[in-house]
Every structure is written in structure tokens, then in C-alpha cells.
Specification:
The protein is an alpha/beta fold and 706 residues long. It is built from 20 helices and 25 strands. Strand 22 (639-642), helix 20 (647-660) and strand 23 form a beta-alpha-beta unit.
Length: 706
């Protein structure tokens, strides 16, 4: 029947994901080696796979069951759609509130494979309050709206400054001096997703302690509260305490130059339904030793068991042990003792006459309850801090101290951070840090520690686009975790820095002096005028205009890359825009569907920064287009940024960059995982220098259902 044919068509579209989308790259452990030979051939044949930030993988062992489940999801989507003939396949499900929640399968297709329908439904019934609409706030708002949260309320009555222009892509020079950043950005943010209600908080004139009652009044009914600008410590404590009362998650994040922090408090008892989002681990039994407790060893050639202490497993088709593990529905707690061995907690099999020599193990996902501490408690004692860079094992503690000193300085100076290059103010922040340094962090290696604190203070007013994009992505993910209950959230503080970009000493005040009118003031405040001039005159080539390509182009427009007299950007992507792109590739709108990605992205970037010089192409980069991308082309550019979806194209671009001695900026994502690699010819390892081992699983987009 026509109905059956429609279901088959939808299954092929949404399960096989052949419509145009694909993973932009690999999990970090595999460096974009997710492309199997089948995937590479499909990519070369159709070239219909473009960037995607929300793909998921399916383990080979559970492949059939996973596919059947996904087909069932598609069938249910079709049967429950409000409009059976609509290609969007909207599913109507009951939400956590009294009203129903509609899930647009076509728009959220990639996200559903990562989040799942239940998590997506919970998220789409959640409300968020966002305080602060500078660069970081704009990124968080954009990410939450694209993900499909039910509603978001924006609160920021502050005036627009030149620092904001460095990272807020919806502000321009004409907005300088205007009040209420939230109201200025609201309409543009609302365009990102028709299903999300975006409004602006009223009756909040300031964000000081005098407006505490007004701010706290906004928290009722919220699922999560996100703060992205400095606020008085007392007000932060009050907001955090109110969040605990109303059951809302509390997130506080800041970016100050090349430094940033995130704090999360999701309450005393926060239930995580799936701590990692991975498919249940499966292994084959090599032996089960009849002991007390029983010891299990898995076949090493099948890979590590992937279990952690506290996990639960079930057994099936076990031979031996007098049938003691014959009940396939019974769950056993695990104590991991090695990558291929574990004990079964509390299970005494010492009385069995023979060991087990055959069987299968399947992990059983269990909800996890996490207990968080308040912002006030963690300020005094941060506890164990999450690492962002294992080469800087002592950096989180130092940054925690530095941000406490910055908060104390700001409260003494009307909530204002030091001016760029103000050595006296930076020294004052350092003195405050020394006075509260109970752990004596500044005594050992004091020179290096003092340098970090001074640089943080000097560039603290700066709002850098790359930092906002990075932390905004992380905070956006924490919002999704808070609303959906899926994936383990950050517990307490998380710090990030890129101090490798900074000079040893503070730059002269004249070099970092800002005009108060330039969109590049934030970058000048950190890196100086000379560096900004170099960025303006760069010539770069972006290969791919999907999710990563759009984000990169947005960052470059805000940074001024290719915006000088000698600068230029080239971007190529032969794909056209489809509806499923709109949930991740934020430069595109509904009206852009069926338009070329590269052309539309170029126009959007020029809207953000009219000074950008950019040329779009609709050509594949390969041997057949070397008459376009040949010697003359590569001789005129300074580097290449790849936003590709397959290994073959990456290898080709890698070889071109080696030949022409050009740096290559490589990156990729797969679901919630991602990786980057900076290739500098004859200085770092190039992309094609190593090969990863075969994958245990393959991307969903390579699977076909007939």
C-alpha cells in the first residue's frame, strides 16, 4: 500500500541517513578514521554527505536490534504525525507538563539518534532563564534554541559595548550604547527555531544586588538557570539558593580573555538516566572461575569489556558452572579488576564443579543519582576539579584562586574588571589572590602563577569569539543534560585556558588600548594591534560549509579574518541545504532550503561583518578540480581549514597542504564527541601519517534497511 511504501521511504531516509547529512568526523580517540571503505565509496559516489554535529554510532554486536528499534521509531513517528502526508513526520507525545510536546522528526533527526526520543521529549518540555547576552550568552542561547528547548527567557538590561561585538554575532557597531542587549538580540535568536518561545525578561532594570527580588522572581517555573556575565557574589548565592528551592539547575559561566570557567549545581539529588550515552557494552566469555567472588575473563581478541566498577551485567548462553548463570534476566554487579577481567560482587560460585567456558555478557544501563554542592560551598572548597588539559594538572586550582580574586576586585570597583594593559590593576588582583591563598599555590613556581593571574586580569574585559564558541558549546550541552537527564554533567567547577596564545609579559598599554568603537576591541585587548592586523590580512580556504564550516565562518567574521585590504576567504561545498541541517548549521534558515550551502553561508558571514571578503564555490576538492584549486590558487592562500565528512577527502587535502607547505586545521564530530588536529608541514605530524585500527562499530549513516 502507499502507507507501507511511505514508511519504507522514511525508514531509509531517517535510519540510513543518506539524504545529505553525515558525521563531520571522528570520536577523539580515532582521529576521523570512522569512514569505513563502504562509507568512503558512498561519499565519493554521491557526495551527499555533509557536516553534522549530532550523529551517533551503532555497535556491530547489537546492530540488528538497534536497526529494528530505529525503524520502529520511524514507524511510530509516521503513525502519530499530525499530518500523515507531511515529510516532517511530527510526533505528538505527552510531555512532563499538561500540554503535549511535538517532535519534528525531520528537523531533529540527527539529534534524536544521540539523545533518544524520551530525552528529547523531556528537553522540549523544559524552560530556561539566561542572564547575560554578551558573546557567551549569545552562544548558549543559540545552542539551546537550535536543540529545541521549550522556551528561553533572556535577561540583560546592560548597554552594548565594543567588547560585545567581538563575539555576539547579532550585534553591530550601530548598536553601540543601546540599552538591553537581550531585547536587541531577541528577534534574531527567535528566527533560529520556530518551535522555541524566546522572550525577554521585563521589569529588571539592573543586574545588581538592588534588583535581587526582581531577578529571583524570574526563577519560578524554570528548569535551568544560566548566568554568563559577572554578578555580585551575594546575588549569585541568592540565585543558586532559589534554584534549589524551585528545583532548577544552576549554571554559572564566564569568559575573560583566553580564560574561562563553568560551574554547575543540579541539586542534591539529580538523576542521570544514561551516564555516557553509549550503547550497552557486550563481550564474549572466555572463562568464569568458580571462586568467591566469581571471576570473569572475556576474550581479548573481542576487545576490552568496557565496564566500570558498579556497573551491572546479564549473562546468556553460559555453559558450565552447574547452570548457576543460566537465568539471562538476572543482573549482577561488577567490580572491574582489569581491561579483560572483573569480579561479580557478592556471588559465591566456589561450590560449582566446573568453570564456565562459553557465554555472552551484556551491560545493563542503570540510572545514576548525583549529589551536587552549592556555589557557596564550592567557592570555599572546590574539591576535585575536572581537568581540561592533563598537561596543566595544577592549573584548575590556580584559576579557581584567580577567579575568586577577580570577583573580589570587581565588587570593589562597581563590578568592573581591569582595563586592558593596566599593570597596576593586574597587580592589585594578584595581591588579592595572595591574601586569600590558603593553599599556598603562589609560593611554589610563583613567577609562572603570577603571570597567569596578571594575564587573566589584563584581558578580563575581552570577549573572544573562539572562547565563547568553545565554552558556549559546553554550557549548551550542560543545559541539555539538565533538561533531559542524559549524560553525566560537570560536577562543580570546570576551568579552561589557552594561555599558550599569550606572550610571556603583558603587552604595552598602547598596544592593547581600545577605541571603544571597533568590533575588534576584544582581540586587541588580549593580542594587541599588530596581531589583529595580521588576522585581517589572512587568506584562508574552508572546505565544507556544514555545521563545523558554519561555526568556523562565524568565528572568522567576528575575529576579522579575511576582512583587511589583503585578506580573503574561499569556501566550497557542493551540497544544498535541507531541513535537517537547520538544527545545527545556524547560518541557514527555512527560506534557504534547497540553496547552496557555501553561497548562503558566505552571505550570512558578510551580514555579520560587511568587511569580510569571501568567495563561495560549489566544487568538490579533488583531482578533478585541480584546474580550479591548483597552483595559482594555493599560492595565494595562507592555510586550509577542513570541515569534511570522509577520510578520502581529508587525505587529499592533507597531501595538497604538505605539497604547498600550508597549515591545515582539521576537526570532526560524532554525536557528543569531537577532535581537532593542527597540521603544520614539517613541524607536526600530518593527518595521513598514521592509520587507526579498525572500528568496532560503524556510523549509522552507512547502514541500510530494505
Amino acid at each position: 500500500s502507499k502507507r507501507v511504501e511511505k514508511l519504507r521511504s522514511m525508514a531509509k531516509c531517517d535510519v540510513a541517513l543518506e539524504t545529505e547529512e553525515n558525521a563531520e568526523g571522528p570520536p577523539p580517540s580515532k582521529r576521523a578514521r570512522i569512514g569505513t571503505e563502504e562509507k568512503e565509496k558512498e561519499s565519493v559516489k554521491s557526495n551527499k554527505m555533509s557536516s553534522d554535529n549530532m550523529d551517533a554510532t551503532s555497535t556491530a554486536e547489537g546492530e540488528s536490534a538497534t536497526l529494528l528499534q530505529k525503524v520502529a521509531d520511524v514507524v511510530m513517528a509516521s503513525c502519530c504525525a499530525t499530518d500523515p502526508g507531511s515529510p516532517a513526520a511530527v510526533v505528538k507525545v505527552s510531555g512532563s507538563t499538561t500540554k503535549d510536546v511535538e517532535v519534528d522528526e525531520k528537523l531533529y533527526s540527527r539529534q534524536l539518534y544521540v539523545m533518544g526520543h524520551e530525552a528529547q521529549r523531556r528537553m522540549m518540555a523544559s524552560r530556561a532563564l539566561l542572564v547575560g547576552l554578551s558573546g557567551l550568552g549569545a552562544e548558549v542561547a543559540k545552542n539551546c534554541i537550535l536543540a529545541g528547548i521549550s522556551s528561553i527567557t533572556l535577561c540583560d538590561p546592560s548597554e552594548v559595548t565594543s567588547y560585545d561585538l567581538g563575539a555576539n554575532f547579532y550585534l553591530s557597531e550601530s548598536d553601540l550604547g543601546k540599552a538591553n542587549r537581550a531585547a536587541i538580540c531577541r528577534d534574531k535568536l527567535a528566527e533560529l527555531n520556530q518551535y522555541v518561545n524566546v522572550d525577554v525578561a521585563k521589569d529588571v532594570a539592573t543586574l545588581g544586588e538592588e534588583s535581587e527580588e526582581d531577578v529571583l522572581g524570574l526563577l519560578d517555573g524554570m528548569s535551568v538557570v544560566v548566568i554568563t556575565i559577572p554578578l555580585p557574589t551575594a546575588l549569585l548565592h541568592a540565585i543558586n539558593d532559589k534554584c534549589r528551592v524551585v528545583g532548577a539547575s544552576f549554571i554559572y559561566s564566564l569568559t575573560t580573555g583566553v580564560f574561562g570557567q563553568i560551574f554547575c549545581d543540579f541539586g542534591a539529588e539529580f538523576i542521570v538516566s544514561d551516564k555516557d550515552g553509549e550503547n550497552p557494552a557486550t563481550s564474549q566469555v572466555e572463562s568464569v572461575i568458580p571462586a568467591n567472588p566469581a571471576v570473569v575473563k572475556v576474550l581479548e581478541d573481542q576487545g576490552r569489556h568496557g565496564l566500570e566498577t558498579g556497573d551491572c551485567v546479564t549473562f546468556s548462553r553460559v555453559r558450565g558452572l552447574d547452570g548457576a548463570l543460566g537465568d539471562s534476566s538476572k543482573q549482577y554487579e561488577v567490580k572491574a579488576t582489569g581491561p579483560f577481567t572483573f569480579e561479580l560482587v557478592g556471588l559465591d560460585l566456589s561450590g560449582c564443579s566446573e568453570p564456565a567456558t562459553q557465554g555472552y555478557i551484556t551491560q545493563v544501563k542503570q540510572p545514576v543519582t548525583m549529589s551536587f554542592r552549592t556555589y557557596k560551598e564550592c567557592l570555599e572548597d572546590p574539591g576535585e576539579l575536572m581537568m581540561s588539559d592533563f598537561a596543566k594538572f595544577d592549573r584548575p586550582q590556580l584559576l579557581h584562586l584567580a577567579y575568586r580574586a577577580m570577583a573580589a576586585y570587581a565588587e570593589k570597583n562597581s563590578m568592573q574588571y581591569p582595563n586592558p594593559g593596566d599593570a597596576a590593576a593586574a597587580g592589585e588582583v594578584l595581591d588579592i589572590a595572595k591574601s586569600i591563598d590558603e593553599d599556598k599555590l603562589l609560593e611554589n613556581d610563583s613567577e609562572k602563577a603570577a603571570r597567569i593571574i596578571k594575564h587573566l586580569a589584563s584581558g578580563s574585559r575581552s570577549v573572544l569569539s573562539p572562547m565563547c564558541a568553545n565554552l558556549g558549546g559546553i554550557v549548551g550541552q550542560e543545559v541539555l543534560k539538565a533538561c533531559s537527564g542524559k549524560f553525566s554533567p560537570i560536577k562543580g567547577f570546570f576551568f579552561f585556558d589557552a594561555d599558550e596564545c599569550l606572550p610571556d609579559e603583558l603587552l604595552p598599554s598602547a598596544e592593547v588600548a581600545v577605541s571603544g568603537k571597533s568590533r575588534y576591541d576584544s582581540q586587541i585587548a588580549v593580542f594587541g594591534k599588530e596581531m589583529q592586523a595580521k588576522l585581517l590580512d589572512l587568506n584562508y580556504f574552508i572546505v565544507g560549509a556544514g555545521a563545523i564550516g558554519c561555526e568556523m565562518l562565524k568565528n572568522w567574521a567576528l575575529m576579522g579574518v579575511g576582512c583587511g585590504e589583503k585578506g580573503h576567504i574561499h569556501i566550497t561545498d557542493m551540497d544544498r541545504i535541507e531541513k535537517s541541517n537547520l538544527s545545527r548549521q545556524f547560518l541557514f534558515r527555512n527560506s534557504d532550503i534547497n540553496e547552496f550551502k557555501s553561497t548562503t553561508a558566505a552571505q550570512a558571514a558578510q551580514w555579520m561583518n560587511p568587511s569580510m571578503k569571501i568567495t563561495p564555490y560549489q566544487e568538490k576538492v579533488g583531482g578533478n578540480t585541480e584546474h580550479i584549486f591548483g597552483d595559482d590558487f594555493y599560492d595565494k592562500i595562507d592555510g586550509v581549514c577542513t570541515a569534511l565528512d570522509n577520510v578520502e577527502a581529508r587525505l587529499y587535502v592533507d597531501q595538497r597542504c604538505l605539497f604547498y607547505r600550508l597549515p591545515m586545521l582539521e576537526s570532526g564530530t560524532l554525536g557528543t564527541k569531537g577532535n581537532t588536529q593542527v597540521v603544520v608541514p614539517h613541524l607536526t605530524e600530518n593527518y595521513g601519517a598514521t592509520r587507526d585500527p579498525p572500528e568496532k562499530s560503524i556510523p549509522v549513516c552507512t547502514l541500510k534497511v530494505s
